[in-house]
Amino acid sequence: MDDIEIRLLTLADKGHVEKFFKEDFCVREPIFSHTKQPPKEGWKFYKSSMEAALKAEISYGAFDTKTGEMCAYSMNLLGNAEVPSVNLEPYPLPVKQCYRLLKQTYPNGMDTDVGTQNYLEIFFLGVSDGYGKRGIATQLCAKGVERARQLGCEYVTIDCTSAYSRKAVENLGFYCIREVPYEEYVDAYTDKKAFEAMRKPHYASTLLALKL
Ligand SMILES: CC(C)(COP(=O)(O)OP(=O)(O)OC[C@H]1O[C@@H](n2cnc3c(N)ncnc32)[C@H](O)[C@@H]1OP(=O)(O)O)[C@@H](O)C(=O)NCCC(=O)NCCS
């Protein structure tokens, strides 16, 4: 992949990450796009996690060597990272719905599921339209696994909302801990199956882990 450079992200990459999140990730990621989460609100909500991820220098970006543009990211956080908590209440319904669905996938916290806080979580994984199906997501996750090993982590975790990201990490040996099927999940805010009409082949929000 001569046209792509994969490298560790730092706080200096915040502009790239924000642009990618708002202009690409939010409009393509299954649950954000399904609920039409407003990118600006989504960014406001997740900004502190993104900054913590960049500060920790354990996240990876892929850049097009011709344009210099970010074409993919894997935003990673450690299980014991201190991320300032954000009050969900004032956010619009789609932000709340997505957040609650994700929480339902690990209702007692990922640390309870893997039995330790010593893990690295891949919390956002995205590849731009036009760069897909070339193994970029798989490579970014493999980088995260390598970094987690260097740091002495016991697990790498990911919540996959896409059938494709799930495939990518299953190819690396991740196993499924819990699935919340879109067809069954009832959203607490509307009392409706808010994700029932999710586009195929995406079928569940799934917590997966790799034991190192
Ligand atoms: C999910 C996503 C990150 C995958 O990125 P990618 O770089 O295309 O993934 P890879 O090339 O590493 O492929 C991983 C697997 O998914 C498959 N796949 C990826 N995109 C696919 C597509 N559009 N159609 C069919 N299969 C696809 C690949 O064939 C591969 O499986 P295989 O090795 O068994 O053949 C990318 O589609 C994306 O950014 N989507 C929007 C945001 C999103 O959904 N993020 C994940 C949230 S958890």
What is the averaged pLDDT score? 97
Number of domains: 1
Chemical compounds bound to the protein: coenzyme A
Kindly provide the radius of gyration, computed on alpha-carbon positions and rounded to a whole number of angstroms. 16 Å
Within the CATH hierarchy, at the fold level, what is the topology?
Answer: Aminopeptidase
Shape: globular
Order of helices and strands: EHHHEEHHEHEHEE
Task: Report helical residue fraction.
Answer: 25-40%
**Number of continuous helical runs:** 7
Major β-sheet annotation: 7 strands, mixed
Which segments are poorly predicted (pLDDT under 50) over 5 or more consecutive residues? none
CATH superfamily placement: Gcn5-related N-acetyltransferase (GNAT)
Going by CATH, the architecture would be: 3-Layer(aba) Sandwich
Q: So what's the CATH class? A: Alpha Beta
| Class based on secondary structure composition and strand pairing | alpha+beta
Distance between the termini: 27 Å
List its traits.
212 residues; Aminopeptidase; 7 strands; 38% helix; globular; binds coenzyme A
